[in-house]
């Protein structure tokens, strides 16, 4: 098989990172390199041409997930220029929705990766990136009346519980209750 161009190699690398980001949020970082590369449509052997280790990919995939989250926030704030409350309301509506509950792969990295990050060693780069992402998300959620950490914990807790109870009526009750707690106070 012939060599791929540098441009194609870069595109393949980006596809691996994007796919890993989605799979890790959906299934956890324990996804095997073989399964990941199969999902991308590339060979297992090609992984080590692109990454020094799986740990290096985990670091990059988590950073990618938080970059996507930040992009989502910015887009909301741009749509609601000068109206921070409206932008935050849109974010809360999307976060505490059935669609978000049911789509972990495209969803919030804070929720999708929390358990995995709790199990990582303290010096792991992924934990640093995760902690910085949590801080940035909390800062974006802060209002004059509510601190961002409390709002994030409410949203995150509700999403995790709603996902865990997905096939039962309480799942939507959890989303609704958290939504009400975040939008009726003030």
Mean pLDDT: 90
Q: Please count the beta strands (DSSP E, at least 2 residues each).
A: 0
Shape: globular
Let me know the largest β-sheet.
none
Helix content: over 70%
Residue share in β-strands:
under 5%
Order of helices and strands: HHHHHHHHHH
Low-confidence parts lasting 5 or more residues at pLDDT below 50? none
Roughly how many Å apart are the termini?
63 Å
> What is Rg?
18 Å
Q: Supply the helix-strand structural class.
A: mainly alpha
> Helix count?
10
Description:
Helices cover 73% and strands 0% of the residues. The model has no long low-confidence stretch (mean pLDDT 90). The longest helix has 26 residues, at 54-79. By secondary structure, it is mostly helical. Helix 4 (54-79) runs parallel beside helix 8, helix 7 runs antiparallel to helix 8 (125-141) and helix 9 runs antiparallel to helix 10 (170-183).
Brief write-up:
The protein has 186 residues and is mainly alpha-helical. The chain contains 10 helices and no strands.
Secondary structure topology:
Blueprint: H1 6-27, H2 33-40, H3 47-50, H4 54-79, H5 84-95, H6 98-101, H7 109-119, H8 125-141, H9 148-164, H10 170-183
List the defining traits of the structure above.
single chain, mainly alpha, 186 residues
């Amino acid at each position: 098989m012939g060599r791929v161009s540098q441009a194609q190699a870069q595109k393949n690398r980006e596809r691996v990172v994007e796919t890993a980001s989605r799979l890790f949020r959906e299934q956890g970082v324990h996804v095997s390199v073989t399964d990941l590369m199969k999902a991308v449509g590339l060979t297992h052997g090609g992984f080590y041409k692109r990454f020094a280790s799986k740990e290096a990919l985990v670091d990059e995939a988590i950073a990618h997930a938080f970059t996507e989250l930040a992009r989502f926030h910015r887009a909301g704030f741009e749509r609601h220029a000068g109206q921070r409350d409206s932008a935050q309301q849109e974010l809360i509506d999307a976060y505490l929705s059935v669609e978000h509950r049911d789509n972990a792969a495209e969803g919030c990295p804070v929720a999708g990766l929390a358990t995995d990050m709790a199990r990582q060693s303290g010096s792991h780069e992924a934990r640093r990136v995760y902690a910085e992402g949590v801080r940035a998300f909390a800062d974006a959620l802060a209002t004059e009346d509510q601190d961002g950490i409390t709002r994030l914990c409410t949203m995150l807790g509700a999403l995790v519980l709603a996902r865990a109870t997905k096939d039962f009526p309480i799942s939507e009750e959890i989303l609704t209750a958290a939504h009400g707690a975040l939008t009726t106070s003030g």
